[in-house]
Each structure stands twice: as structure tokens, then as C-alpha cells.
Amino acid sequence: MSGCLAAVCAGKKDQTDFIIQKATELGAAKIMPVITARTIADKVKKERFIAQSTEAAEQCRRVDLPVIADAEPLDKVLKTWDKERILYFMDETGQSPCAAEVFRPQDKKAALLIGPEGGFSEAELNALRTLPFARGAVLGKRILRAETAAAAAWPSGSLLPEIGGRNKMRILVADDHELFLKGLEFILSDVSKDLQLVFAKSYTDIFKILETDRGFNLVLTDLAMPGANWEEAITRIHSTLPETPIIILSAVFDKEIVEKTIEIGVSGYIPKTSSNAVILSAVNLVMSGGVYIPPELLNRKLPDEFNEFRQAVELPEGKAVEENIKSLTPRQIDVLRCISQGMSNKQIAYTLGLTEGTVKLHVTAILKILNVYNRTGAVVEASRLGLIKKND
Predict the structure, then answer these.
(1) C-alpha–C-alpha distance, residues 23 and 4, integer Å
(2) b/e burial code for range 45-71 (CB count within 10 A of at least 16 → b)
(3) What is Dmax (Cα atoms) for the chain?
(4) Do the beta carbons of residue 20 and residue 31 sit within 8 Å?
């Protein structure tokens, strides 16, 4: 599941801001401002969209930010569109089927295109109707304003598991001891009010589940389980779910093994002796794009790329954030700027020429230094402290 995109036709300031806010709150993975024939906005300000999205994410406690794309003309967007992603466009003419008939739960990649007030031009509608990946939908006779259409379209018919928000968190939990699975079910109930857990008791079970279901926000798994060698198994899981963070929760605690799992792409390694609070904190950290490494491991010799991370997590508790920010490195400031632009860890890694694992370490350090719990909080706090500017 790749997450839903919101393609928004830029319009009046207040209307567009409302749409950006609601798309963020409802879980859009990416927001794309689109210029159409009837667009009335003189200038589309991306920095304002980012600020609106950041504020909305903070209010609804969303732990990540949608990517805010640069504004582009509709014809250019359609020419470069991912043909595997269904584009639902809102048709005010009434010539398309009603939304409930059009939206399909089996569409694993989708986007909603909300037109400007007055709707799309006849030429634009004709162009959309000829595209094999585009589907028109009618929301209702009284839904004419762009912001009303955006609010009405998103949850219509529960068209996708993730439309209506990333608020529904799905975690694949694996352990070969049923009693431990029950314990994890109890602990993880505090992660989200709307949580779905899928259980596996072996690597064989995991592979079978992933054959038909890959819509997970997190994989939380034991290391030593039946079905495969752990190194081969974790590598296979990461290859199958490259965008999904993986946390190892294991009784095996060896420096070389921990380093190897991080090298493969694991985002966290939690000893089974950890308290409930530690497990929850680690899960929240990883879901914010960071990496969790046990404090015990930090006292041992680690590769050079862990040094900045170690310095950050060893900051004394209770120290003022204004004092802590002196320990932010130039590279961490670069990462922070990328986070403020809504970039994912993979995009940050590509932009800055880093490995994704190194980006995760920097994100973890940033959250610790700023004394916040997620990326949204980091952007808000960094803005307050003057670490990032609107034009960064």
C-alpha cells in the first residue's frame, strides 16, 4: 500500500489552506498543487502549504508529514503520471457515476484530484476521460465548493484501506511464543486508538502473509524463529517491504548481530528484557523515522557513523533545548531542513548523498536534541528556535 495522493487545484487562499489541512489530517502521503484553466491563485506558495500541513499534523498528532510537491500545470501532471496509480477526479458535470460506484477498495495505489471552483474546463474533462488510469466521480448536486469536495471525497465508501487517513495503523507482529505475542498485543494497544495487529509465529508465516498483504506500517519480529535463517529472512522482509520500518525484539543481544541487522535496514533492535515503556518509546521513535539502539550497545565500540548519534542520545536529561541545539551538527541541520520540506528518509538520503540508515540515525539524534517525539514536533520546534526558515 503506497498511500493516497491528494492532487489539489490551487484556488483562493483560505480554501486551499483548508484542503491542505484536511488532506494532512486524513493521511495523504503526498499533496500536489495543480494549476488548471480556472485556477485563480496568482502565486502558489509552497512554503505556506508546508506550514499549513505541519500545523495540521501537529494538531492531529500525525507522526509524519506528507510530501508537498511543486505546483505544476494539469497537463504536465497527467503526462508524467504513474500509470499504476488510479486518479479519481471529481466531476461536477454529473456525467460520471456516483463516487460510491467508482471507488474500489482493491485499488492499491490511488489519488484524488479536486478541481477548482467552477470545475474543470471542458477540454480538461475530455482529456481526463480519455486516460486509462483516470476515473470520474460525482459527489452530489450540492457539493460545488472545492473544499467541500475535498472533505467529502476523501472518506467516500472507504475506497482504500489508507484513505481516510494513516490513522489506522497496521503492525505485523511475529514471535514463536504465543504468550509473548499476547503480551505484545497488550503493550501495543497504547500505540494507536485505531490499531490492527496481524500475527505470525514463524518466518514461514511472515512470508505467506506478505504474498497477499503488504499494507503494514511496521514489522515487529523476533530474530530466532522457525522457517529461515534470521539474516536471510530479515533481508527478504526488507526487500519485500522496503518502505516499512522493521524492529527486532529479541532475547539475542550481541553487538555484531545488532550491527548486521541495522546494516540490512532494520530500524530498531529491542532486547526482550526491556520494559513496556521502552518498547513503546522505541516504536514511536521508529515510526517517526528514527532508529532505536539499546543504550547498553552505546557503551561499546561502534562504527564512526554512530558517533554523532551517541553524543546526542547521551545528552543529560533536563537540559534546556536552547542549550542542546548547540550539539546539532551541520549535517543534522541539513536533515532537519529536508524534514521540514516533507521528505521521507529515502528522499533525504538521495538528496544529501547518505545511506538511509545514516539518515535514520540523524533523525533520532534530532528528535532527542529538540526533545520532541516525532518529525512534526521537530519542524515546529526548529521553526520556533529559528533553525529553519520558511524559504529553506
Answers:
(1) 10
(2) ebebbbbbbbbbbbeeebbbbbbbbeb
(3) 67
(4) yes
